[in-house]
């Protein structure tokens, strides 16, 4: 939970950096490619494949391609069709995909997790609801692909680590995550990138280095590490905690307009969903312990 909370704050800051210093100024494909290369360079020297099963290696490549590669390509493209408020609104569906994908893999239906996730979605909607423009269907669908692949990557990484339980530390294999993302983003940049919109200022490069090394490198590593340590309900809820965190940082640092009443109300709903989910899990563990004693 600590890892997820810390990365939530980190990514909330990063969202503002992208919106203020990169959006519309630097080619989005190049920005994503730079983040992947810098993050991968952080972990590549530690990569050790010895002793890792081939399915685990392929799984890590797939997780990176999904959670980082496809997600970020689609996320940046969605801004072509949607306004920022619409993007923020439509990302609230990610927790539902987390819970549903986890239940599909487990071949079960976790009603408490889905209920708590739905409560968190309602909280995020309270914070970020604005009038939706008429021409948004294409952007909405593209963004749902991003939400889905981000959810699949999170759940997939947690399942991989729990199933194979590699003897080497996670940072020894995490470079595979960024290699998988590179397989998706490099061809995308070569085919669709705009070479006329490369970074041109010190600010651009400073922000990209921060986003690559800290937000992408350390951020994705600790987020996925946290995903292994919590249940799917908590993981889904924490995906929506980014919305109030992002608004708080915007208000405090950049003094952007925000409805503080809605911010507090929506944030309170998300916190309540976490507390309800924790209470349900506690009762479930007690029930399982009592059943084992009988």
Provide the descriptors you would attach to this structure in a database record.
294 residues, mainly alpha, transmembrane, EmrE-like, EamA_dom
Largest sheet: none
User: Judging from the principal axes of the Cα atoms, what is the shape?
Assistant: globular
Number of H/I helices: 12
- How much beta, percentage-wise? under 5%
The class by helix and strand makeup works out as: mainly alpha
Total strands: 0
Order of helices and strands: HHHHHHHHHHHH
| Radius of gyration of CA atoms, rounded to a whole number | 19 Å
**First and last CA, distance:** 32 Å
State the domain count. 1
Mean pLDDT level: 82
Unreliable stretches, pLDDT < 50, 5 or more residues?
Answer: none
Helix percent band: over 70%
Transmembrane segments: 29-49, 56-73, 79-98, 110-129, 135-153, 174-192, 204-223, 235-254, 260-280
Protein name: EamA domain-containing protein
InterPro entries: EamA_dom, EmrE-like
Domain EamA: 2-127, 155-277
Structural notes for this entry:
The protein is an all-alpha fold and 294 residues long. The protein has helices spanning 2-22, 28-43, 54-78, 84-90, 94-106, 111-128, 137-164, 175-192, 202-229, 232-240, 242-254, 260-293. The model has no long low-confidence stretch (mean pLDDT 82). One of its GO terms (cellular component) is membrane. It holds the Pfam family EamA.
